[in-house]
Amino acid sequence: MSYNTFGREFRFTTWGESHGPALGATVDGVPPGVPLTKDYIQRFMDRRRPGTSKHTTQRREPDQVRILSGVFEGVTTGTSIQLMIENTDQRSKDYGDIATSFRPGHADITYHLKYGVRDYRGGGRSSARETAARVAAGAVAQAVLGALVPDLKITGYMVQMGAMHLDRARLDLSAVDDNPFFLPDADAVQAWSDYLDGIRKDQNSVGAAIEVCVQGCPAGLGAPVYAKLDTDLAAAMMSINAVKAVEIGEGMASAALTGVDNADEIRMGPDGPEFLSNHAGGILGGISTGQDIVVRFAIKPTSSITTPRRSINARGEEIDVITKGRHDPCVGIRAVPVAEAMAACVILDHLLMDRAQTGGVRGQIG
Amino acid sequence: MSYNTFGREFRFTTWGESHGPALGATVDGVPPGVPLTKDYIQRFMDRRRPGTSKHTTQRREPDQVRILSGVFEGVTTGTSIQLMIENTDQRSKDYGDIATSFRPGHADITYHLKYGVRDYRGGGRSSARETAARVAAGAVAQAVLGALVPDLKITGYMVQMGAMHLDRARLDLSAVDDNPFFLPDADAVQAWSDYLDGIRKDQNSVGAAIEVCVQGCPAGLGAPVYAKLDTDLAAAMMSINAVKAVEIGEGMASAALTGVDNADEIRMGPDGPEFLSNHAGGILGGISTGQDIVVRFAIKPTSSITTPRRSINARGEEIDVITKGRHDPCVGIRAVPVAEAMAACVILDHLLMDRAQTGGVRGQIG
Amino acid sequence: MSYNTFGREFRFTTWGESHGPALGATVDGVPPGVPLTKDYIQRFMDRRRPGTSKHTTQRREPDQVRILSGVFEGVTTGTSIQLMIENTDQRSKDYGDIATSFRPGHADITYHLKYGVRDYRGGGRSSARETAARVAAGAVAQAVLGALVPDLKITGYMVQMGAMHLDRARLDLSAVDDNPFFLPDADAVQAWSDYLDGIRKDQNSVGAAIEVCVQGCPAGLGAPVYAKLDTDLAAAMMSINAVKAVEIGEGMASAALTGVDNADEIRMGPDGPEFLSNHAGGILGGISTGQDIVVRFAIKPTSSITTPRRSINARGEEIDVITKGRHDPCVGIRAVPVAEAMAACVILDHLLMDRAQTGGVRGQIG
Amino acid sequence: MSYNTFGREFRFTTWGESHGPALGATVDGVPPGVPLTKDYIQRFMDRRRPGTSKHTTQRREPDQVRILSGVFEGVTTGTSIQLMIENTDQRSKDYGDIATSFRPGHADITYHLKYGVRDYRGGGRSSARETAARVAAGAVAQAVLGALVPDLKITGYMVQMGAMHLDRARLDLSAVDDNPFFLPDADAVQAWSDYLDGIRKDQNSVGAAIEVCVQGCPAGLGAPVYAKLDTDLAAAMMSINAVKAVEIGEGMASAALTGVDNADEIRMGPDGPEFLSNHAGGILGGISTGQDIVVRFAIKPTSSITTPRRSINARGEEIDVITKGRHDPCVGIRAVPVAEAMAACVILDHLLMDRAQTGGVRGQIG
């Protein structure tokens, strides 16, 4: 069994290779009657698009999305939506030397072992270029969420890049869109920029940590015990290329806490329960509490670097690998809009799942 | 949509509440012809069973499993297997006072909000008692893995409990089964025991971190891009009660690494590729490399504590909650066999998925 | 991959063998807050129960259902429901001689070929005894439908048994429950009874055709193009033991019709569209029209007969097979409540699917 | 939940509307290393293509397939395959008058009721044009089957068209590809042609029955009890536009048979078991026997006819509907390659499912 599909009610299947003619997403389960245009989707694509700053790959892809089905006269019809993005800047000759050699830390060797055959150009199917299709699907999810839960807002931002850490006291979500790092601290941008310049000049790359905050998510989403909301968010983030860890709320730090400290105490506010803290990251027992949902993940450094690393090739010869081509020195940066897209898909999926089972009816308090 | 099923090829659906008459797992997709007995499963159950040391809940459940279907004359038949565990020590009166009050940090409030109605006795469906059914299903997975991949071995162990940390230099997997903490360091057991005694005497509880190591896993398992092996392991661990984070290999520490440091370089060994390090935790591009698979997760402290915490009840009144009943001061301990079970289910699931798609054919090196 | 699960939103997984200790259904996706009792389910079980007339197997099974989870204080909680039926009258010695011989027309040989091992007692997993679990699951579906669509009514009845045909002019659904054939024509019961007596005395068995009519089904159910309502009904009926054909509306007779004759013309009635005929059986383009849904299926004669038939055994020896044991001369009779149960599950599943996608919003006419 | 996906291991999701820019299939689960070219797929497309004889719609679509992903250097890579067919001859102005009126017997009204909004041009998503995508997906399945089970052969043919019936005594599968009716009787072609000319001149249309025979299918395919091979074949055929019934082997005629007559007796042949008849249509207990698999289905007459029929429009006004545009007088004809495609997908899906669970191991006889 192969598995290029994500989601249960709101589902998308991605297809396409880094240097094939096109890539895209087939989206199913979309409610009918939701306004959706190419321009709306494009705004999300442009946030992830390569080549927009010196800190990302210099591959120039316009990433223009075409809607081939499922939308009629500007409105979703409830049938499957095909979103296609044509590849235009495939400089495949750069990749000739990796046809048979395996980059350390890259999927080259595991794809070779598993499938025997692979499209090695630009990493083929294992390339992070696949995430363009996720962003397109996520834009559809955002359009539907906008119609169903207008107050819901999803914001991703970097909290760490190698040795650079976000100062939590300075967190300002309004700054995120004004710098190439999706950094919620305008004053720190220059330092991060200098740091990454240094990494790139060293022919190196660096890891990152990204956080996604979902504001305005209704309580009651999550389907225990194997489609808990946090379970699905963890799977969504871990499925993004190069991600090695996912945290909800306190995350790994929970291991050090005591029950007294970890308890998010509750009082009654004017509109219902109010939590005095959010160690839980907005999810208890796999179900949303109505607080902000906080997900964080770590992404490893790009494995394609120009510093030579020891490896082997498909003939079993020991070689040194130097990866030419155009690569992001920190793939974490462009993962931010991807993570927002995945969060949107998970939240919408659960909203529809809940609509199916409970019809949105809720237990009363008070 | 509700979702009490885990897995794709090897699937199990759990059912049952903490204080209902019984709980269990319906297991589907099991290959035929595999020896399986009640006694074999029972050995796994006994590792998770409550009441075996002073450090776990004093509820006394024999956790005797009955095989009601799918096994004939000691061998699996390929049809669905029902595993039932009867509850015997439900002291439900302990829970009368939580029928309408919500423990801070617990699923009480979210189940109430989502479903309107809930079996509050002992946490009902949200209780970690559900994990007994996972261990039973995991034992079936272990039996099948034993038949298909005899060299594969799955070992879980604690690496942190509150302020106590495993000294990695002393890691000794052979020590794990000889102490109530599944601690891979015999000499540290007394200190951990004293520490937890202190926590309990303080009417408190504490978090933990657990690691699972899969040795002998074949290369080539994992179905990119939405059923990557690490994606499914992350979902499996995050679905366990109280888990707040999952890491693969370097995990969150990846964010601090550079590409030069993170590269797991490769040389040729007598039997094929050999990796000189394992930052990746045995998975690249979502597919196993053949190295040890290393998964780690954090589990928050038990929310049911006897120290009073501020909360509300279903009538919207502000109250103080003190949870009586019998609770683990560190739920992380008994999560160890649960995590092993989940890992076994994921590995087997992927083994069967791979068998379907590739037929187990592998790309050659050399 | 094995597959003992039916449904998407409302799902049940059945387990158990004919002569094992018990069998049952694990039901998931049930909306919370629906009244459900053992007695309610039992009424459906009793309609399918063996040994209630001379025309069905003389195996005496009380078919008492136990609800082991998912219901609290008489109301569904939204968690998985386990329904267990213990087997009490397994006279397994009757089956010793079929341990290695294959009954012509029976699943004995295909289970042997596929799995290598099988529980041969009473047909094991291939026995129609599995349908008891379907009826239990169907009762849960009926309870939920009763809460969500009170006017919906599902009625199954026999329309053919060998040479006996229902006279459509005499169809009277109110007669169905008053005779052992579920025959909607009270006056024909004696003739059918005499006919089946003759079949049994001839050491023979006979096929049947059953029709299920769903009255009061809302328009708009069905998820094109691969979960059309008729697609799912066809799969549901074909999955019942011994079924060899499924028809919707005109069914096979459609092949002989012209477009002029087949058109179900439409006029406006006081409450909306009214169809002047129902060749379509209440489904167009895979979506319900609001008319009666009419499904019909044929069930082959019981293959276990006492007239000797030529066959082989597992050693490859040519033998004559005479099946002792207690068998229904017409398995079609007891398939009636099973078909009603499957129809209820399909309709509920689609109601929840539709609730998820469209939220039950409908296009307006007029 | 919407559902535009078919299959479990070998899955395809179709997308596209009759008069949109393109349509296609996203195919997942394809084994790697299988030779696959555009030309290979095109041969299957050409059999279904409209406008090839006077008996099918005069819409001229070249139905050229593009492979956009999942194939590299002529070989499948195991990643998702995108097959796109651009629409070129959309004469949408023909359809302006059906934007708000409902053709009797057509999905117009149910799509309107369910979704509120629909692409009415040429029937939009409900058009049989969707089946072009199925044929493309089926061609991929055929390629894989050709690699895995070289002796397997799937042949569809018409057995009835209105008043015309195939004379079974004259059945000759070698004649099927030499006439526009896929008729396995060369001598009857002229009479069928004259008959259909008459239907068309009468401004009418007519139903049909099609049979698909799978030769060389291995024994052991089928996953009881809810993914029986016949269950999945029934769903596959019923999902095709306008299909109203599906039969396996004897089909509806089973209702009239006795157990003595229906038994397919078994003898030992030189290569194993040999069945003396095939009432079962090659499937027992939902698992293939190794005999020919025989599936038959009825397809209703085209609902778009130029004879006026009474209906209503979206404003609730009573109208007469006359459907202009270009329509097949017998949609059954072009359903033949579609049914072959669906059969190929089901057989391959089950081959992979079986490979996952049993590894293809078989019980021995003799």
TrEMBL record, chains A, B, C, D:
Xref: InterPro entries: Chorismate_synth, Chorismate_synth_AroC_sf, Chorismate_synthase_CS
Reactions catalysed according to its record: 5-O-(1-carboxyvinyl)-3-phosphoshikimate = chorismate + phosphate
Cofactor note: Reduced FMN (FMNH(2)).
GO BP terms, alphabetized: amino acid biosynthetic process; aromatic amino acid family biosynthetic process; chorismate biosynthetic process
Taxonomic superkingdom: Bacteria
E.C. code: 4.2.3.5
Keywords from the named record: Amino-acid biosynthesis, Aromatic amino acid biosynthesis, FAD, Flavoprotein, FMN, Lyase, NADP
An example Gene Ontology molecular-function term: FMN binding
Enzyme class label: lyase
Obligatory cofactor(s): FMNH2
Protein's pathway: Metabolic intermediate biosynthesis; chorismate biosynthesis; chorismate from D-erythrose 4-phosphate and phosphoenolpyruvate: step 7/7
Sequence positions that bind FMN: R125, S126, S127, N241, A242, G285, K300, P301, T302, S303, S304, R326
One Pfam family linked to the record: Chorismate_synt
A single Gene Ontology CC term: cytosol
Binding residue positions for NADP(+): R48, K54
Role summary: This reaction introduces a second double bond into the aromatic ring system.
Subunit text: Homotetramer.
Family under the similarity heading: Belongs to the chorismate synthase family.
Protein name from the UniProt record: Chorismate synthase
Species name: Paracoccus aestuarii
